[in-house]
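Journal club side-thread
Mid-discussion, someone asked how the predicted structure for our own chain would compare to the paper's figures. Pasting it here so we can look after the session.
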Amino acid sequence: MPRSDKQFPLVVRSEPWISRDGYEFDPDSNRWKLSRDVSLSMEWTAVLLGEPLFSGFRRALARQARDYAAHTTRSVVEKFKGLVGHACHGSESSIALRHITPAIVLSYRSTLDSSREHHLGALVAFFKRWVSWGEPGIDEDVLRVLSGMRLRGVRKGKAVALRDPYKGPLSELEYEALHLALADGFESGKITLPDYALSILLLATGRRPSQIGDLRCGDLVEAAIADGAVAYVLNVPRRKQKARALREEFRPVALTVENGAVIKALVGEVEKRWLDLGGNPAVATHLPLFPNWEVLSAYVGGHDGKQQLRAAAHTDLFHTRSSSISERLVEVVKRLNVQSERTGSALHVFPTRLRRTLGTRLAREAAYGSVPIAEALDHSDTQNVKVYTENVAENVDAINEAVASQLAPLAQAFAGMLVDDESGAIRGDDLTSRVRTDDGKGAGTCGHYGFCGALAPIACYTCKAFQPWLNGPHAEVLHSLVSQREQTAEQTKDEVIASTNDRTIIAVAEVVKLCERRREGLRENG
């Protein structure tokens, strides 16, 4: 294994150095692998650091890596390297940096504007631990200087407060469009079961990619309740809590029956594939819900059942990387081509945006206070929840017929196909396929051959199997829905409740516009 060209006299240890995520690493090495997501390159320390700073920093960092999350350790390295780079660049000497002094800290602080003050702030806790551990290389006066500074942290909540259409929480229409597109994409075979399960977990739970990646098959709990029904609970591993080992603490999350059934199907698929590879059946419940199949497949052939069990139970060796979780979500949404009514283009989705969406949706409900929202987002306290509770703003805008007509071509809520009359529709010769309004008027044809329990005609306008007729009473349906919306808003004083059928309103408005264009075309063609 490569080693530094400088002496790094660690205190002799009888046991190996193990990161918080269970990875063994050598502090003398120039590369430390701390988790499935984090590997640190340490070669730069031999170039920029002299003694005693070189040995002191690496010893302190080794302790940090052992006791704290890998991504936190990576952040410390990145921020410390920035400080050292400034100090070395400003020095007239080519000699490597030997001490961190108050003068260096003050000089670096002067280069940071308000948006980057957190670069230094992120080092404060590490410097305190460094000094308390008695490692050399940092003057104790540095802590005194830092304690006198007021350093701004990372600004949080900007995208939420500004309702950023690209980074902020999804609007209700965008949320519904994404939810429906995922279900339709899975049903039609556009996306696989693992991709569908991953997407709905991120959408429904708001958990971080690292937490979704930490899940294992045994984390899903299915319980029988009254009348033969079932309930599903997912025990989600916690992250970002200090001094916690991999999968040491969990927080249960209730799933809907539909989502629970999807996760159960995925568990079955993962276990079957594992057994087909010749894996040890005893490992099944320890298998990741989203495995790194390349690593897992290679491991099966070279290790016996006991080794497989040990590796699966105590490390994240078989788990997919967090970055892969994020990339898969982006790819899935891109493949489905979900449209945003706010931008008029493809919806831009990533895990943090879904997390912001969950927090915002919960904050809109008067029944949810800071504590439930913090629990839903897996925060240990409520200090970061105010970004949602202070920006409950009316994120749901009132929709009338004029607004619906403007949004219709952007939202693409209507998924079916306009037909001139019943004779041109799929199943048009089947009288039972007619879709009627509440007053019995024919509005279109249902092209679905199976059973459908949806409420017609309201649910039909957003269904891909619906074939509205050119001369159907769509304008009347639109007017009725908008009137109901206005009446509900007036009675409840709650725009969220009133917005329940907004996507349907926009879909009907789109049908009305399509009918107008079709009639114009027929008139022009004589």
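Post-session note: The chain is about 45% helix and 10% strand.
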